[in-house]
Amino acid sequence: MSRLQVVSGKGGTGKTTVAAALALALATEGRRTLLVEVEGRQGIAQLFETEAFPYEERKIAVAPGGGEVYALAIDAERALLDYLQMFYKLGGAGRALKKLGAIDFATTIAPGVRDVLLTGKACEAVRRKTKQGAYAYDYVVMDAPPTGRITRFLNVNDEVAGLAKIGPIHNQAQAVMRVLKSPETAVHLVTLLEEMPVQETVDGIAELRGAELPTGKVIVNMVRPHVLDGAAVRGVTGDRRREVAKALTRAGVTGSAKLVTPLLEQAAEHAERVELEREQRAVLGTLGLPTYELPLVGEGMDLAGLYRLATELRELGVGE
Prior knowledge:
By secondary structure, the protein is an alpha/beta fold. 52% of the residues lie in helices and 15% in strands. It has two domains: 4-224 and 296-316, Rossmann fold (3-Layer(aba) Sandwich); 226-287.
């Protein structure tokens, strides 16, 4: 099983929620998972109903079986200060550079360097070991940038090649790529059963494959239940007013004549959605990747809903 699980998806598909639920699912039976955020939105803190995370690894949840979930919101500026201390032993000089604005310049003007720092911090957590020789974390889950930027974000070696041919930055980028392009990593894409998210997923998978980055699974989020079976869906396409009115009357519903039109309209809308979802499932099926579906969990998302999704993911075996 891949130890670095990268989760991406078009905006609005719930990728952060899925990443958090996946971290919980992987942390069962006493395992330790690190959930990493790289976009500075503090979305993970909101999901777990806690205050904004500082730049440190912090325990945020306990999974069934005693497992633990830690979280880290990676800050590019702080990561660069760590990097300067690690490779150049700058210490206080690094803090002085921050005051002069050099750190902000490096992480803003040179986005390739910024991505090396962000991905590098996650990869360091994947490789880190305890004094006893065991991995510090069994899994690292990254809440990554959206699908449209994921390949460029992960393919940091190409981004940095034009900036640094040799030296620590170059070596760091290559070390990161050795993790990202290895079986240790899997990149999952989250989508909805709607045309635009599905098309972006198809394009994203093609880009990942073109960059030789390891694709994982497609996770279809917020799937609504079908309230009508196939025969009922097909039955709303014709003129069914009289039959529906009679059925309502037999069921003891008063004022059935007034209910027929809105009921048939709702049924037709449902039938249209079912057909659209069928078409989008067929498109996803052409990708040749395992595809899993998560249910729509009410309005909004709370901790109970997050744990429910974690249970769904665990039963589906998404992290395997």
